[in-house]
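Re: the pair you flagged

First of the two:
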Amino acid sequence: MTKRRAIPTAPEPLEAYAGCFDDLFGKSNQRDEFRRYLEGLLLPTERNKTLTGLANTEPDVGAQHPRAQGMQWFLSESNWQERLVQEHRLHVLLEEPSTAPNDQGVLVIDEHGDRKRGHKTAHIGKQYLANLGKLDTGVVSVTSLWADEGVYYPVDFEPYTPADYFEQGKHDPAFRTKLKIGVELVRRAVQVPLPFRAVVADSFYGEDHGGSHKACVTSMSATC
């Protein structure tokens, strides 16, 4: 068996956490960039959701820096499987005693919007961005989060695609309301399996005429 190439380690205890995912990355530069990505997320900066912020380079001009280019490759072109990483992240959380869920926790369904410009980003459109409190051009994702009195962490997410992407708009069979996406996230949590005593969501998610979806959420939360 070929010995794996050594890569720069992350500071502890981040290195111990990152090492749990090494088997999901077949190349040494993927494992390296994964560590740099985690470091970027933890940087004390307001730019940790931008590529240059994650790579800790200057805004705009720093996009051509080798660190930013390596991050760009890792996030957009490298062939690792995002769903496998997400599943393993949850496995680590469920196995760790300090974060293991219990049946007294709740599953929180919410949404997050990011302002974006241009037309090339998937799911982009002029829509209500809840975290900004106004209509703007951006991308919205429906999210699920597990929480009890002592700990909380994200479980899953799914992008919302605005109705104008579909030929028949909101009447198109492929269009999904945010409530429908939320129900799918509840189903995924049940399949993990992730215990919770209730599903909670903003009243905004009641603005859906598909009563069966509300019944579905109520039924699931009652049996979890």
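Second of the two:
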Amino acid sequence: MSKPKIAVVIGSTRAARFADAPTEWIAKLARERGDLTVEVVDLRDFPMPFFDEVASSLWVPSSNEIAQKWQKKVEEYDGYIFVTGEYNRGPSAVLKNALDYAYTEWNRKPAAFVGYGGVGGARAIEQLRLNAVELQMAPVRTAVHIVLADYLAIKAGRKIVEFEHLNQAAHDMLNQLSWFAHALKAARDADAETADVAAA
């Protein structure tokens, strides 16, 4: 079986976003493992309008061309790491919008989270876990939480890799993500093989 392909999704499009630093760090750690293929996906490359379709793409194909491009991109992956800040106790609107613009493409794949903010993005991640379950993803237990003290130190010039508690959380999270990515990929592949046999 080929290595699962994981997307690290940058959940902010702000010009002054902090998300690039944790994205670069977690993508590097994931690549160093050797058991995952990792690609960074930037929502800036998919400037979708706020959701304005007739219904979810589960029921009606999306008419927006960028949304269609986004759905094809999401479908490429076997799992996701969402990098998210926290805005008024929730994730960014652009990330929630991106989740809403796909459905079946997310199904039966694991989701992991790297959060930053006053409480390490914990409240945003808690909401994203619920969204992930509704989209039939399997959110892993451990997340990375870059709290305000870490955030300020990083903004002042320290590297994320210098924070041992963040490295340990990332290690645990990636172990869980890898396990679920391999297991669910095998299950999806088996389902596809069964469907092919039935259709023959």
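The longest helix spans residues 164-199.

-B.
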